[in-house]
């Protein structure tokens, strides 16, 4: 039977003790084909060879194995599934405003894979050149691995290449480069499959593009807790994984959360779930904690804060 990678490559080293169970993230969509649960295996890679292990339980985003045995050396786990499956995806846009032109690159990634890290490594040099990263909304449903999708923007002057392929997890994703005039109009984008159906659609507000590094033209009012509660849905939808990781460390540094709370959130693999846990945890702590989180978020991701229409706030004493 032929297998292909269905989740990220993980290195796990056990120094002391034993694990009761391990939950490995995957990006395979089981809703369209529940029988894929029976096709999933764990590829256990050790110094002297590889072996396939049975999966105890498969959930929407994780595969569970019980009582895993690891050697003292670094162990690589690769969760794999059958070829040509429906998968969960994310869409990331890197964008910069160059005088009268808006230049962007759009990536279609497998969720819960190492592709995002590969893209961030590729793009890290561009962030210092004025580019910003935007995690856009995910497709409403699953997409077929290896299929092609045409990027559409009614205001673009150039899209190259015109189509993007959803590539396997062990491949660095390709991208579509899009150029449009800086007209102040919101950026509307669609991905169209070969069957002519809209696979994904989103709109990037002009304020998120032009307001980076400065305050939003209009801001939310009310207490910090009210402001944070009002942006909860969009925060969970838009905030990127790198920002969440740094935000978590800074919340601990500013004693908004304690070590135990940080560790409980840090192990969450799914980005939206982690974002939801962080904002809900802070909301339960009251106005002062909410103020500190807003100020940290403004510092870490001014583009997102411009989109959410929040500015720095005073911290109650």
From TrEMBL:
Domain FIIND as annotated: residue spans: 1-224
Cytoplasm is among the record's keywords: yes
Superkingdom assignment: Eukaryota
Swiss-Prot/TrEMBL GO biological process terms: inflammatory response; innate immune response; regulation of apoptotic process
Main location: cytoplasm
Tagged with keyword Cytoplasm: yes
PROSITE patterns: CARD, FIIND
Location(s) in or outside the cell: Cytoplasm, Cytosol
Entry keyword set: Cytoplasm, Immunity, Inflammatory response, Innate immunity
Sequence ranges assigned to domain CARD in this UniProt record: 220-312
One annotated Gene Ontology cellular component of this protein: cytosol
Protein name listed in UniProt: NACHT, LRR and PYD domains-containing protein 1b allele 2-like
Organism of origin: Salmo trutta (Brown trout)
Biological classification of the source: Eukaryota, Metazoa, Chordata, Craniata, Vertebrata
